[in-house]
Each structure stands twice: as C-alpha cells, then as structure tokens.
Design brief:
Strand order of the largest sheet of chain B: 1-2-3-5-6-7-8-9
Structural class of chain A: alpha/beta
Structural class of chain B: alpha+beta
Shape of chain A: elongated
Number of strands of chain B: 9
Oligomer: heterodimer
Radius of gyration of chain A: 22 Å
Shape of chain B: elongated
Strand content of chain A: 35-45%
Radius of gyration of chain B: 21 Å
Strand order of the largest sheet of chain A: 2-3-4-6-5
Distance between the termini of chain A: 65 Å
Number of strands of chain A: 6
Order of helices and strands of chain B: HEEEEHEEEEHE
Strand content of chain B: over 45%
Largest sheet of chain B: 8 strands, antiparallel, barrel
Largest interface: A-B, 29 and 25 residues
Helix content of chain B: 10-25%
C-alpha cells in the first residue's frame, strides 16, 4: 500500500515536471494585440526619437503610432513616410491620405529609408 | 507655329536630359531573408524576416540591404528569445547590413531570364564586419526586379558564441537565402 502511494507521488511529480518543462520550451509567442503600449506617439515623433539616437528603448516594445497613410504595399502600410507598419495577419483596408492609428511591435530603425519599422501591426483606429 | 516648335524642342530637351541625369534606383522595404541552421533529428533552427530593405543603384550596380534582427520570426517563441537575447544581442546590435557592388552590372542587359552577377561587398552584424562574395541572380518581372541570392555564414566569424550544451543542435554553417522584388523609384 505504502509502495503504491510513493509510486503515485513520483509519477505525479514526473508528469508535472515534464508538463512545466514543455510549457517553458514551447510557450506561446507574445500577443502584441493584448499588450499595453509603452508609447503613444505620432509617426514623426517616434522617428525623431530614433534619429536623435534615443529610440533603442522602444526596441521589441509595443507602441501606438498615429499618422497619415503615405504608401500601401502588399503587407504593409507606411505612415507619413516615417513609420512602416507590417501586418503578419490580414491587411486592413486603408486609403492613401487618411489618418489612422496602428499598434505594433517596434523592431528598429532602418537607415536606408530612414523609417521606423513595426511588425505584428493591427489597425486600432 | 515656329514658336510652338521651339517650345516643343526645349521641352523635349528638358525631358531627355532630366531622365539621363536622374539616378535610377530599384528599392524595396519588404524583402525576405530566411536562414536555417538545423541539424537533422533535432528541433529545426529556422527563421524568416519579411521586412528587409534593399536599394540597387541601376547606374553603378551598387547594392545595399538592411535587416532588423528583431524582425526574424521563429516558430518556437523561446528560440526567438534566445536568438535575440543570447546570440545576436539585438538590443545592442539591432541590424545586419550588406553593402557592395554587382560586378559588371549593366541595367540595359536586364531581361526576363535570370542572369547571375557576382556580388562583392561586406556584411556587418553583431558588431563585426566580414567580406562577402556571392552570386546574385537578377531578372525583370514586369516593372519589378526579382533579386535572389544564397550564401553561407559562420556564427564564429561574427563573434557569436554558441554554448557547448546546444552546439550539437545548431549547425556551424548557417544557410542564408534572400529574395527581393525591387520596384523602380
């Protein structure tokens, strides 16, 4: 009887440990849509932070950016020619010249085009 | 009548000279770079970045490309975290840059059939620069320019240390494939 309880406890610990280990190794990706943004700014505002060399604090952080649509591409929308928002799921419908607000993850500053890039974007307004 | 003709000539002159002096460039902001460092029978080590920028100067054959390290997406979230925090240290070195020239590039020879050019330049990431020589294939597809290349990099050349505990699960040679659809600007 006692042997049986010990066996049961050991088995339970092993299964529990394996489950926790598995959850750690194969945890879900971050969900940018539900994260709180660390910055709510205009397109030129966030771009300026990067050109002044103060943008690195936003790397890998969720931000909200508002601006006028200057270019629409297959999977991205560019705001004021300063922030490119990349959509990994479905592209929202937007028209050039309209003012919109986008939430996304800031992945850095592109010196070739002098733009800030966001991925996993979603249109919030 | 004669004045009209004069206007026309001047106009024609302006149009032709301005097109001669305009720097013809092909650009993209959403090129793709894939890399794979998988070892058979272990979890695949593979990522894709579809936010890569590139510029080709059609007059000189100069080519530059920039990839943001944070833009590489992995299937496994923890692998992406380790890639950014432990290996590439993307908060310190947020980008990878390739710069160089397509040898003997001539924009007038672009055609729909793919042509290979030799690319000679440098690749910089993780605070290190290395020379890069690879073949790049170019083909015209309507108004856009399809650019493709593939090459092999070694993490140790860029001072990227892989701990011995995982070194048998990550290949020593990383295959990088880049595809761009450049449009005229």
């Amino acid at each position: 009887m006692r042997k049986k309880t010990v066996f049961l406890i050991v088995a339970l610990v092993l299964v529990g440990g394996a489950y926790i280990g598995y959850r750690y190794l194969y945890k879900d990706h971050r969900n940018i849509a539900t994260e709180l943004a660390v910055l709510d700014s205009t397109a030129s505002g966030i771009q300026q932070r990067f050109t002044e060399g103060k943008g690195d604090e936003f790397l890998n952080k969720t931000v909200i950016v508002t601006g006028t649509v200057s270019q629409i591409e297959e999977n991205s929308i560019t705001l004021d020619e300063k922030v490119q928002c990349i959509f990994s799921t479905q592209m929202p419908s937007a028209t050039e010249g309209s003012k919109i607000t986008i939430k996304g993850r800031c992945i850095g500053y592109d010196d070739l085009f002098e733009i800030v890039k966001l991925d996993q974007s979603q249109l919030i307004n | 009548m004669r004045k009209n003709l004069q206007y026309l000539l001047v106009l024609l002159l302006i149009i032709t000279t301005s097109s001669v002096f305009a720097q013809q460039k092909y650009v993209t902001k959403s090129g793709t770079i894939d890399f794979e460092a998988s070892v058979p029978s272990f979890e695949e080590v593979k990522a894709k970045n579809s936010t890569v920028s590139a510029i080709l100067n059609a007059e000189t054959g100069e080519f530059a490309s920039l990839a943001l390290i944070q833009g590489f997406r992995f299937k496994v979230a923890l692998m992406e975290e380790h890639f950014n925090e432990n290996y590439m240290e993307s908060s310190k070195y947020p980008k990878a840059i390739v710069k160089g020239t397509l040898q003997d590039f001539d924009k007038n020879q672009l055609s729909e059939t793919a042509q290979n050019y030799k690319f000679v330049g440098t690749i910089s990431m993780h605070g290190e620069s290395q020379p890069l020589e690879t073949d790049i294939s170019l083909s015209r597809n309507g108004t856009s320019l399809e650019v493709e290349t593939s090459f092999i990099l070694k993490p140790e050349d860029f001072n990227i240390k892989i701990p011995s505990i995982v070194s048998n699960k990550i290949a020593g040679e990383v295959t990088v494939t880049a595809i761009y659809a450049l449009s005229e600007k």
